[in-house]
Amino acid sequence: MPRRLAGLLPHEIAEDCGFDRPFRGIQVFKWLSGGALSFQDMTNLPGPERERLTLLHPSLLGTAVDGRFRDEDGTVKLRLRLPDGAAVETVLLTDIEGRKTACISTQVGCPMACAFCKTGTLGFLRNLEAFEIVEQYLHLTRMFGRPSNLVFMGMGEPLLNLPEVRRSVEILSHPEGMGLSLRKITISTCGLPEGIRDLADSGPHVRLAVSLTSAVDEVRSGLMPVNRSQGLSELRDALAYYQAKTGDRITLEAVLIGGVNDRRQDMEAIVEWSRPLKVQVNLIPWNPVPDLPYREPSRRAVEEAVTLLESAGIPVTRRMRRGRGVLGACGQLGETLRAPD
Ligand code: SAH
Predict the structure, then answer these.
(1) Residue 143 Cα, ligand 1 centroid: separation in angstroms?
(2) CB under 8 Å to 141, separation ≥6 — which residues?
(3) Backbone dihedral region of 51: left (phi > 0), alpha (psi from -120 to 50 degrees) or beta?
(4) Are the C-beta atoms of residues 185 and 229 closer than 8 Å to each other?
């Protein structure tokens, strides 16, 4: 079976399509990036070539949109059906200035089992391949216009699928294609020290966000099983290493759960723990997930958290509650992993 073209770089497309002239690979890459859906659209290829390639690749993309949900706040969630029948979700967020951010999935399900996250309750089926990652962005672009920002914050743990995430970043940032700047791409991880060091050593140097959640080991271990084997001090060492290599400010994401990690002492622990690092904190009020034993933080707890962190000199951003109406907000992505029989 021919390879899926959306996961290939120009020279690989040239190889796959049997072009003897490399610039044809660039032409096809450009068309794909521009939203072409078949070789017939590619008007700068000779007619007989278009015919030959259509037989080779009757459908240019390997994934299909089979569900589209729009929240009142403008957030859109798509369900994509993958070639093996599995499904993932991908989200488009639009902020008040109209800036669009694609929130992309990297795995079908997730093995990390964070207690507060819907995807974590599903279990893990498999890693996505690069074409399945790139096509999420292509579908969003074709349907809603080109998102200027991309965050690997959908379903799955990107650092457990680093080869395919790397390849997709290379494709999405390629100057002959979508040309997304690395500064506009964020990888969000639950905090795997080995993956963070690998990213520091070998790139790509996109923005890094880490789901800290709590800077108290017992609390974090209770919410995020990953912390039981690799605790907060290993995580901080890896982040210091990353920062020494890249100089970048790191975003710490803290989902705030009422009565669990939204208290004064929780914020003080974050201030203490992050002292050796250059960070900003992104506070995310917990989005309800049916059947999970948590509650949202009070408005007052969120205000107090912001004030405490800011008065310690830490820049704070607050995640807007976007996409809840379509279960498309952080931690609510939970498409069943397999197609119904
Ligand atoms: N695996 C990666 C990316 C996916 S999770 C990671 O862990 O970072 C993306 C973000 O959503 C994480 O910061 C996570 O803490 C947050 N999150 C998960 N469940 C949530 C929920 N129910 N409400 C709010 N944020 C949630």
Answers:
(1) 26
(2) 35, 147, 178
(3) alpha
(4) no
Look up tokens 């200035």; give the residue.
Answer: 97
**Of residues 89, 129, 135, 335, which has the active-site annotation?**
89
Ligand 1 surroundings by CB, under 6 angstroms: 116-117, 153, 157, 188-190, 211, 213, 253, 255, 284, 286-287, 289, 330-331
| Angle at the Cα of 136 from the Cα atoms of 132 and 142, rounded to 5 degrees | 130
The 10 Å Cβ neighbour count of residue 47 is 9
**Tens digit of each residue's pLDDT (9 = 90 or more) over 51-89:** 999 999 999 999 999 999 998 888 999 999 999 999 999
Q: Report the nearest-CA residue for atom 5 of ligand 1.
A: 153
CB-based contacts of 86: which residues, under 8 Å, 6+ apart? 108, 125, 126, 337, 338, 339
In sequence order, what E strands does 164-239 have? 185-189, 207-211
Please tell me the residue having the least CA distance from ligand 1 atom 18: 331
- Domain spans, the chain: 5-56, 64-326
Q: Indicate the pTM of the whole model.
A: 0.95
Nearest alpha carbon, ligand 1 atom 7: 190
φ/ψ (deg, to 5) at 282: -110, 110
Does the annotation mark 330 as catalytic? yes
Q: What is residue 283's three-state secondary structure?
A: strand
| Number of the ligand 1 atom closest to the C-alpha atom of 331 | 19
- The answer to whether the CB of 150 falls within 8 A of the CB of 104 is yes
CATH of domain 64-326: 3.20.20.70
Residue-wise pLDDT tens digits, 241-259: 999 999 999 999 999 999 9
Which comes out higher in pLDDT, residue 336 or 170?
170
Confidence of residue 341 (pLDDT cuts 50, 70, 90): very low
Index of the ligand 1 atom closest to the CA of residue 157: 1
Active site residue 89: yes
Q: How far is CA 248 from CA 171, 173, 243, 245, 274, in A?
A: 23, 19, 6, 8, 14
